[in-house]
Specification:
- It is a single chain.
- The chain is α/β, with parallel strands linked by helices.
- The protein is 40% helix and 13% strand.
- The strands form five sheets. It has a nine-stranded mixed beta sheet with strand order 3-9-10-8-7-4-6-5-11.
- It is globular and about 105 Å long.
- The structure holds adenosine monophosphate.
- The site of adenosine monophosphate has 7 residues, from loops.
Length: 937
């Protein structure tokens, strides 16, 4: 000890055990480390350094109290002993914090050995001499002492073994303490019985056996095998069985292609026969509307027995866009939880599997984490498993793949605990699974299991990995499979006989040969009160009728609720005016505007018992101040949602302002809508063009999910669209993109131009049995346009018109041109025609561009059979909008020999100009063109 320290020690308050003085001093240090004398700072720093937050103040107090209690006489000695004790505490915390950096988590042993200074004795002013001395490590139990050597041995075993624990970043004190307790006390005792060990060996045998079998039978066929990561199968089984034991009724899983076939057969019980047939190319496709998908994208549903009862398993279908399935799973889970009134969110558990490269590389992971605790999207915690084979296709250098130590660091954004576990230690994997599930069930939050493994073969089976990973694959070639390692371990432990492992492998192979289900817990699918019967929705047509009207009496009743402000609830003055106007509209005293009609549509649906769910960045109010489905008290800030007060037995109405995401949010709603056909599920873009932030969801799921996977989806997208001079970004929802994706009646594209049209369209989406995505080019300026209004009669008596004929009193025989158009431009053309007194040009609105209402349009055009001049008018540039994608439909509807001209903006790279004057000029020009006027008119 140096002289200054000694001097300090002699006058140190330790002498008198002055705990309260020390407490104050420590408090000061916590507030401002520079406020305490340097020597004290050093002491506190030593304690604090390794564990920024994890030492509670009370613990420090206890520590000093203990010193006071022991009252050792010589101050010199006290300080010497205490500093050592502090060093020990500091070392122990260093293991908690840094142990994972040297833990044996890489089965290949290729992880660069790291020298962690904080794990060295000297760093904490300790030395070899101290190893035989006794110290305490639990500051709550200072009397319980152990030799330092033993302490280190224990902490090395816990923190530097097969699991690298990262939990000190967990912010909640109770969670951190809970995790620490589990890891330090319970983990070591979570042994496996002989039976459990045998079960694990069976599952490893199954995992390996399936890949071997497929590899031998279909050499070179792509299967994205699990070889190297076989521990995934016992891991999944443990999670499912454990969830069942804790009362869960459903587990929804998402995963990419790696290991999917193995999961399908060995966890979900897809029969090997069915899988083999797929390998042989015998897909049962006799329906021309079904395109099918590759084997390793297929979803599956099954029931399994668990100690707590039957658990339903659903593996989500997914495309090759690896991580996008995560929010889809979350949406599906949320729908199931709501269906089961599962407020605790324990009855349905999501498990999402990831690849290491994609987990750290794809932004949707971060978006999904961000959603995990929000009102609209939480699912009570997801168990994430990273199948970390330490390579992304051919990319294995960490400095190519990421800028973080681990691929899992993204999970720290929500302070999720992360457990890196060596895939070659199946028992560690099982114990980690138990902890992960326990954490999820206890705290309702996400947790990450990083299953560190390897990929025995290439990215796919036809790939040569040695070309790019020569050193890794030299090691892999010599590395025994985990099944073999574990079988040897069990033999040593005398749990199995030498011949048992082979017998198990032979037995599994026989099962495969028989083609029968290999999952012992599998049972035929049960039906129960929460089972959804999808049959009514199968084979429905978009033309199926539905009465979307509401009676005058119901409108009155709903209108009353929608405009009744609770007592003492103070609306903002503009909102108040809107609600007062709405009251007059529902009473038939004023024409209905958009907001009134839209709210009435939702009110009608919940009144009839349907669920309505709306999310989007400003959905409660509406981006354009038109919806006001959520009211805000100006005095208290409290909210009131009239649509939740429609009737006692109404359907649920959920509306949320979403997190600022398009991709994950839309994927979530897709997951919700494909799981719950009885609800109206709406995602609303703030502006329509933002939808392209979710393009993967539109391309890979919404437009093609039914065709590829037979999954129906009634999701509605409200995409504000219209050229109002707001510039290139807020004008177009890229109608052309959606139209280009349309085929085989895969989705509906509507551009309603009146409030009543919106009303009937929204109700039709639920009341018809058809469950197809509905893409709506929704309005902006039309929300308040004086011509875009409807009467109550339109609500009580109408339906959704796919085509709206001319509304003015023109004489059809005198008409020499017919303008066809959709959406807002209609009103511009109509106004100009009226202004100009033109009476020989008819205007016909096409309100549904897909499926194209050919019959309806032909009927509407029948009075114009003599007309030779038809024009399609759109606001979008010629290369955008409906012109290229839909003109064949327009041409099919017009009389033979008639011409179809174009009135719109010239082709353009950007959707719209950012210069207001230019916008005005263009808009005038296209309206003039439609009406055959010279531009100067
Ligand atoms: P799941 O609860 O997702 O496992 O679904 C159970 C069963 O319901 C599936 O096997 C399908 O037969 C049916 N099903 C679920 N979702 C859909 C959907 N979106 N479209 C059509 N059928 C579905």
């Amino acid at each position: 000890m140096d002289q200054s320290m000694l001097a300090w020690a002699k006058t140190s308050p330790f002498n008198g055990g002055s705990a309260s003085y020390l407490e104050d001093l420590y408090e000061q240090y916590l507030n401002d480390p520079t406020a305490v004398p340097e020597n004290w700072r050093k002491v506190f720093e030593q304690i604090h350094d390794q564990a920024q937050n994890e030492i509670p103040h009370s613990a420090i107090k206890n520590y000093f109290r203990e010193i006071a209690r022991t009252r050792v006489a010589a101050s010199h000695q006290i300080v010497s002993v205490d500093l050592k004790q502090i060093g020990v505490l500091s070392l122990v915390n260093a293991y908690r914090k840094h142990g994972h950096r040297v833990a044996q988590i890489d089965p290949l042993g290729l992880r660069e050995p790291e020298h962690v200074e904080a794990l060295q004795l000297g760093y904490h002013d300790l030395s070899e001499v101290d190893l035989e001395r006794e110290f305490f490590v639990d500051i709550h139990q200072p009397a319980k002492k152990e030799k330092l050597g033993k302490i280190i041995e224990r902490f090395r075993r816990i923190y530097c073994g097969s699991v690298g624990w990262e939990y000190l970043h967990v912010e909640a004190d109770d969670e951190r303490r809970w995790l620490q307790g589990w890891i330090e006390n319970r983990y070591g005792q979570e042994g496996l019985s002989a039976e459990q060990k045998k079960e694990v060996l069976y599952l490893l045998t199954a995992a390996e056996g399936l890949e071997k079998y497929l590899g031998a039978k279909f050499p070179g066929a792509k299967r994205f095998g699990l070889e190297g990561g076989e521990s995934l199968i016992p891991l999944l089984n443990e999670l499912i069985q454990n969830a069942g034991a804790r009362g869960s009724k459903e587990v929804v899983m998402g995963m990419a292609h790696r290991g999917r076939l193995n999961t399908l057969v060995n966890i979900l019980g897809k029969t090997p026969k069915e899988l083999m047939e797929e390998f042989e190319g015998n897909y049962q496709i006799d329906d021309e509307d079904y395109s099918g998908d590759v084997k390793y994208h297929q979803g599956f549903s099954a029931d399994v027995k668990t100690p707590g009862g039957v658990v339903h398993l659903a593996l989500a279908f997914n495309p090759s866009h690896l991580e996008i399935v995560a929010p889809v799973v979350e949406g599906s889970v949320r729908a199931r939880q709501e269906r089961r009134f599962d407020e605790q969110r324990k009855l349905v558990v999501p498990i999402v599997m990831h690849g290491d490269a994609a987990f750290t590389g794809q932004g949707v992971v971060m978006e999904t984490f961000n959603m995990s605790q929000t009102r609209a999207y939480k699912t009570g915690g997801t168990i994430h498993i990273v199948i970390n084979n330490q390579v992304g296709f051919t990319t294995s250098r960490p400095d190519d793949a990421r800028s973080t130590r681990y691929c899992t660091d993204v999970a720290k954004m929500i302070a999720a605990p992360i457990f890196h576990v060596n895939g070659d230690d199946p028992e560690a994997v099982i114990r980690v699974a138990r902890l992960a599930l326990d954490y999820r069930m206890t705290f309702g939050k996400d947790v990450v299991i990083d299953l560190v493994c390897y990929r025995r073969l290439g990215h796919n089976e036809a790939d040569e990995p040695r070309a790019t990973q020569p050193i890794m694959y030299q090691v892999i070639r010599k590395h025994p499979p985990v099944r073999k390692l574990y079988a040897e371990q069990l033999q040593k432990e005398k749990v199995i006989e030498a011949s048992d492992a082979k017998r198990l492998a032979d037995h599994y192979r026989e099962l495969l040969e028989l083609g029968k289900n290999v999952v012992p817990t599998w049972i035929p699918m049960q039906t129960h009160e929460f089972t959804v019967d999808w049959r009514p929705y199968l084979n429905a047509e978009w033309t199926d009728p539905a009465d979307t009207t509401l009676s005058a009496e119901v409108v009155k009743r709903l209108g009353d609720v929608l405009t009744t402000v609770p007592e003492n609830f103070v609306l903002q003055s503009r909102v108040q005016k809107i609600i007062e106007d709405r009251r007059a509209m529902y009473a038939g005293e004023k024409p209905l505007d958009w907001g009134a009609a839209e709210n009435l549509a939702y009110a009608g649906l919940v009144y009839e018992g349907h669920r309505v769910r709306i999310t989007g960045q400003d959905s409660g109010r509406g981006t354009f101040f038109h919806r006001h489905a959520v009211w805000h008290d100006q005095n208290t800030g409290e909210t009131y949602i009239p649509l939740k007060h429609i009737a006692q037995d109404q359907g649920p109405f959920d509306i949320y302002d979403s997190v600022l995401s398009e991709e994950a949010v839309l994927a979530f709603e897709y997951g919700y809508a494909t799981t719950e056909p009885r609800a109206l599920v709406i995602w609303e873009a703030q502006f329509g063009d933002f939808a392209n932030g979710a393009q993967v969801v539109i391309d890979q799921f919404i437009s093609s999910g039914e065709n590829k996977w037979g999954r129906l989806c009634g999701l509605t997208l409200l995409l504000p669209h219209g050229y109002e001079g707001q510039g290139p970004e807020h004008s177009s929802a890229r109608l052309e993109r959606f139209l280009q994706l349309c085929a085989q009646h895969n989705m509906q594209i509507c551009i309603p131009s009146t409030p009543a049209q919106a009303f009937h369209m929204l109700r039709r989406q639920v009341l018809r049995p058809l469950r197809k995505p509905l893409i709506v080019m929704s309005p902006k300026s039309l929300l308040r346009h004086k011509l875009a209004v409807s009467s109550l009669e339109d609500i009580t008596n109408g339906h959704f018109h796919t085509v709206i004929p001319e509304i003015d009193d023109l004489v059809p025989e005198r008409v020499r041109r017919v303008v066809l158009c959709s959406g807002k431009v209609y009103y511009d053309v109509l106004q100009k025609r009226r202004d100009e007194g033109i009476d020989d040009i008819a205007i016909v609105r096409i309100e549904q561009l897909y499926p194209f209402p050919l019959d309806e349009l032909q009927t509407v055009l029948a009075p114009y059979a003599h007309v030779k001049d038809f024009v399609w008018c759109q606001e979008e540039p010629m290369n955008q909008g409906a012109w290229y994608c839909s003109q064949h439909n327009f041409r099919a509807a017009i009389p033979e020999g008639a011409t179809l001209g174009f009135a719109g903006r010239p082709p353009s790279a950007a959707p719209a100009t950012g210069v207001p004057a230019l916008h005005e000029k263009e808009q005038k020009a296209l309206v003039a063109q439609a009406l055959n006027l010279s531009i100067s008119d």
